[in-house]
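Justification of resources, computational component.

The compute hours requested in this renewal are based largely on the per-chain cost of generating structure records like the one below. Each record pairs the submitted sequence with a full structure-token output. That output is archived, and it is also reused by downstream analysis tasks.
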Amino acid sequence: MAPHSTDLDQSTNPHSTVPSYGFQPSATQKQLSDQKAAPALLHRSLAHQPETVVHASGIKLTLSSGRIIIDACGGAAVSCLGHGNSEVLDAAMQQMRDVSYVHTGAYTTSAAEDLASLILEHGRQYGLEKAFFCGSGSEAMDTALKLARQFFYETGEKQRVNLVAREQSWHGATIGSMSVGSNLPRKIPYEPLLLQNVSHVSPAFAYHYQYASESEEDFVKRLAIELEDEFQRLGPETVIAFIAEPIVGATTGCVPAPAGYFKAVHQICDKYGILLILDEVMCGMGRCGTLFAFEQEDVVPDIMTMGKGLGGGYAPIASVVVSKKVVDGLRVGTGMFNHGHTYQAHPLSCATALVVQKIIKRDGLVERCSIMGASLEKLLRKKLACENNKYIGNIRGRGLFWGIEFVADQATRMPFDPSLEFGLRVQKKAFEFGVAIYPGAATVDGATGDHVLIAPPYIVSNNELENIVEIVAKAYKAVENEIL
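The structure output for this chain reads:
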């Protein structure tokens, strides 16, 4: 299959005639009418000014205007502990007093060592042996790709140069991570720079890609055949890795794979000695009700990335967790990983993430995320999946990670004309009513489709969940009435 092209027809672009590359002005942005007053900071939009947050506590944000907003999406599914946790703040201050920075080419810190040990305390049962820390999910994916390539370089399979990923996925904003991702609007201006050794297969997105005549098992078989055919097209001996999100996040709105999909994928990868890289930057670290999202898929990756819920937004940090198999490949070769960053395993970031993860473990928040997620699902289905809500297409997710997809026709699942910006309008209404949710467009195929994402902190209460869903339902209804 040819790489997922970004050459979109402007008439079907989910944005305006002036390309916005997928970053629509959100409900939290104000139109800039006076260019003289434009900020010095380069925001995502030059035409819109984000709201200024002056205080954050628990699941609430206080704006400079005095408005209180319920953070029902944790930014981008980042804030797992909520805001302003005093234990985390104290630990960060203490680390800055002790050691604020050292270069990992010569030094290490107990914060970094202890964080790796804590993660692998859970990961060793799955054969995961080492953890690498960097500053973002995009860096983590680039690190994973380099590590996978070096594994084969060290083990004498230098002909392995190709990467296979899935359409309608997102793996980061750097050139490497963007190349394996497939959020088409975000890739438009960078097409000439992207890696040419990457191809994409169909997404495991049953709502739109499973045929009406197919069972779930048949859908999985078809996807597995397509993946193996792609390996054969490239020459399986030339493929480094297959990359996928266990639950696709922002691009399609919390889409889990059909049952048995990852097991089938893993068997095909093993058949040809191809590595499996799972991207858990958004869906991992407890967000879906287990510490690692892959634990619900009966599969173990060779390399895994994680990020947002690792530090909970208190400091920028992401991680690459590596299997013994891959580490052993380096051991028998040069005995080193030919990669590094200035801020790799930064002491402040590691100390912050360490206390975040200790609190999550101590307070049983992963288990709580699973329990509260079941409550959230019931509320969403009760309030939104009802007959008089004619544009609710699909509600899906796990744990505290849920997406609501909107369609113009429930029977055919036909998406709205992108110019209506249905999902964005729901987000704007919800914000107007005091709740922040995460909007998405181009859900179906990179050009059409609308969804919103709900991913509150793990500390959310039942009353807060009820309030969130009530307001989201109200916002949806307001937009539905505008469209009718």
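The chain has 15 helices and 19 strands. The radius of gyration is 22 Å.
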